[in-house]
Amino acid sequence: MSAFETRRDMFNLPEGITYLDGNSLGPLPKHAVDQTRRTMTDQWGEMLIMGWNKADWMALPGRLGDRIGRLIGAPVDSTVVGDTLSIKVYQAVASALELRPGRKRVLSDNGNFPTDLYMAKGLIDSLGQGHDLKVVDPEAVEDAIDESVAVVMLTHVDYRTGRLHDMAAITRKAHEAGALMIWDLAHSAGALPVDLAACNADFAVGCTYKYLNGGPGAPAFIYVRPDLIDQVRPALSGWLGHAAPFAFDLDYRPGEGISRMRVGTPPVLQMAVLDAALDAFDGVDMADIRARSIELSEQFIAEVEASCKQVELASPRDPHARGSQVSFRFEEGYAAMQALIARGVIGDFRAPDIMRFGFCPLYNTGEDVSRAAAVLSEIIASREWDQPQFKTRKAVT
């Protein structure tokens, strides 16, 4: 029995479903149901408001931050959980810009997740201080880093193709130019080894509902380099980032360390789910997850390309140059994905023509891969996708 077979039993995987969309939303960890029920009945139900003290709800953001920190190479007390990823992006960019007052450029690439670009553009428009957002091709990022750049903001793994940036090299280039580095780990955390401390990253953010399996709407996290945190002024000065929230001062004083990056009240029930979900990573080496992920993705590419010539690989051919997903281009990709889902193989679609498949060794198997490849080939070869019900766009693709 492989090291991951017992982990698969920790997840609720509906019978007859091959789930290759954990890069978009992880499945339900079975243990999360009981843990959330206990949080509701034994804590909220019995303790009422006393749960903030008796159940130590207030400490959840930091405790969960440290559990995630282990998976992303972050030292203890440098990561905190709360709010949404958009909020955490805003915090990171705003703080970084303040730390480089003489510079006016935020540099990103067109493989970045659009929300990150929206938040950065909205922030600099609100500041009205002459900042600009420069967006280049992913391959052009390093050459675009110069002394005009205040902040480099990138998503580590491209959400569309899975292309993987060289975190250490780009961070080093940013620092050599005097810029600060922000990494979005939405498609990295829990999927592949990340070592923020070793590469000296300044900020990192990420969501917890993908590979970390925290459930729809699970809170995001933010990391700040420990030697930098006391210089950071939180742009979103929420009451739980205050040094003494229950002193109810009218003036804001930032909390010590990473606690100053807290904003609003912790979503306790959602954090209970995330806490349970992270149990699946206990005792697991991220290098082993990465090795198995590469095996699964390589198997998928080989089997699809051997039987389905109509699709084109959109992900990097080199497995070490992509994250834990494989994307194929197909002109009718949306309809083909809907046909796949109707047959019990779940991936997702990203415009204009990309079918995405995520590989999560905690619960995906070689049998999952073979079934998905076979069903995809059947659907394409038979033109099963060419039906009206598969071409009607839904709200979520």
TrEMBL record:
Pathway where it operates: Amino-acid degradation; L-kynurenine degradation; L-alanine and anthranilate from L-kynurenine: step 1/1; Cofactor biosynthesis; NAD(+) biosynthesis; quinolinate from L-kynurenine: step 2/3
Top-level EC class as recorded in UniProt: hydrolase
Binding site for pyridoxal 5'-phosphate: L85, S86, F113, P114, T115, D116, T155, D184, H187, Y209, W239, T265
Cofactor annotation: pyridoxal 5'-phosphate
GO MF annotations in UniProt: kynureninase activity; pyridoxal phosphate binding
UniProt xrefs under InterPro entries: DegT/StrS_aminotransferase, Kynureninase, PyrdxlP-dep_Trfase, PyrdxlP-dep_Trfase_major, PyrdxlP-dep_Trfase_small
SUPFAM superfamilies associated with the record: PLP-dependent transferases (SSF53383)
Superkingdom, natural source: Bacteria
Entry GO terms, CC: cytoplasm
Hydrolase keyword on record: yes
This protein's UniProt keywords: Hydrolase, Pyridine nucleotide biosynthesis, Pyridoxal phosphate
Residues carrying N6-(pyridoxal phosphate)lysine: K210
Record GO biological process: anthranilate metabolic process; L-kynurenine catabolic process; L-tryptophan catabolic process to kynurenine; NAD+ biosynthetic process; quinolinate biosynthetic process
Entry EC no(s): 3.7.1.3
Catalytic function, reaction form: L-kynurenine + H2O = anthranilate + L-alanine + H(+); 3-hydroxy-L-kynurenine + H2O = 3-hydroxyanthranilate + L-alanine + H(+)
HAMAP family attached to this UniProt entry: Kynureninase (MF_01970)
Family listed: Belongs to the DegT/DnrJ/EryC1 family. Belongs to the kynureninase family.
Oligomer and partners: Homodimer.
Functional description taken from the UniProt entry: Catalyzes the cleavage of L-kynurenine (L-Kyn) and L-3-hydroxykynurenine (L-3OHKyn) into anthranilic acid (AA) and 3-hydroxyanthranilic acid (3-OHAA), respectively.
NCBIfam families in the record: kynureninase
Name of the molecule in the record: Kynureninase
